[in-house]
């Protein structure tokens, strides 16, 4: 069997037996491989942060793949029981599989990840990296005070006064366009 015939056979099989579950599982597999790899290749990030983030992304997809499969197959199985007509059951099965995969992405996977990932990361001895403290604004900074003496100075000409200086009428209600 030549490579050309092999590729044709695979493409024909995938075209005839394509299920939403297979597509989403393939995407999750690629994400589970590529996202941690790209995270680890980031040279600007802290090594501990990279390790934690890459492992978390990988674990998320490890949880996602079986969840997609289970939800898709369970939803598709409902169609086989509900419809006796073979053609109608096949279309309904694919539609319900798609809905099952969507439900997995919206509800099941986030729920499983929130329950499972933190204990797994704790057992591995990995903690979330500490976030840097935000810069504290100095409380002694005061806005510039405009007096007749310093209004004419060139240095103060480029500083903007407060916005309340420009408002002549009350700013209430819904205004569309214009001034």
The count of β-strands is 0
Q: Mean of the pLDDT scores?
A: 80
Shape: elongated
The separation of the N and C termini measures 75 Å
Radius of gyration from CA coordinates: 29 Å
The number of helical runs is 6
**How does the major sheet shape up?**
none
Structural class assignment: mainly alpha
Question: Which percent range fits the helix content?
Answer: 55-70%
Order of helices and strands: HHHHHH
Query: What ranges have pLDDT less than 50 throughout 5 or more consecutive residues?
Result: none
In percent, how much strand structure appears in the residues? under 5%
Q: Any overview of this molecule?
A:
With 179 residues, the chain is an all-alpha fold. It has helices at 3-16, 20-41, 47-82, 86-123, 148-151, 154-157. The chain has a domain at 3-123. Helix 2 runs antiparallel to helix 3 and helix 3 (47-82) runs antiparallel to helix 4 (86-123). The mean pLDDT is 80.
Q: Topology, please?
A:
Layout: H1 3-16, H2 20-41, H3 47-82, H4 86-123, H5 148-151, H6 154-157
List keywords for this structure.
179 residues; mainly alpha; 66% helix
Briefly summarize what is shown:
The chain has six helices and no strands. By secondary structure, it is mainly α. It has a domain at 3-123.
